[in-house]
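[Automated response] Your request has been received and processed.

Submitted sequence:
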Amino acid sequence: MEPHHFPDPTVITGDETLFPGVLIVTLVRPDERNAMSGAMVESLLGLFEGHPARNAGAILITGAGRGFCAGSDLGELAAMGANERQAFEAASGLLARQMVAHPRPIVAAVHGFAIGGGLTLAAACDFVVSSPIAKWSLPEVPIGLFPAWGLEAVERRVGRARARQLSFGLDTLDGATAAHWGLADVIADDPFATGCALAQRLAALPYAQVAAVKDYFARTREGAEADEYANRLFIEACATDTATASFIRYARAR
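Generated structure:
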């Protein structure tokens, strides 16, 4: 898997030789606290639509400098007209949905802060590793705005009541509380190293079966529909070489 470089330097991807099969995606706007610009969102959309991410066994997203991501670039938003703002936020929402639907598992390594769109970006990942002292918040409402995208992923993680509580913008959670609420899955002093190790474990799993897990949980299913869909994925998994080898091995062991 070759490293993939975008013309926009706010997103850098490449392989970490210590973690084979893991595509590491770094948000690189440290002077702006990795705030999401239009160029950054466009690059991430291209990544998750394209082959570099699909060729990886797992993907890890991290931020350069002091933190993970401080959300949308408010300076850039201030210079936009209403239509441009709407388009930017719609693109950010599409990005989150692409991540949820992507066939490869995505791990967020959060240090320093995950604020606004940084919080919703992390929530769209399959696993979130946070430092215990990282700051988590949705500060939009107190400054006269609204969390424009990604709340579905937040609600799936923390439930409707806590998603609403976060959306008022009164609470700033540390990493430990974020884990207690469900925003983070793992607490680690070194989120990057822990996240890479977790991503490597995920990358070692059979591709088709991992993609089936992502497919099933990409949207909510209930009752008979849920079981019927899971059964369909099971039958498809049974037809893979990995499942065939397992059936042969267990049949011989009887």
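Summary generated for your ticket: The beta strands are 11-15, 22-27, 58-63, 106-110, 113-115, 127-130, 135-137, 186-187. The chain has twelve helices and eight strands.
If you did not submit this request, please reply to this message.
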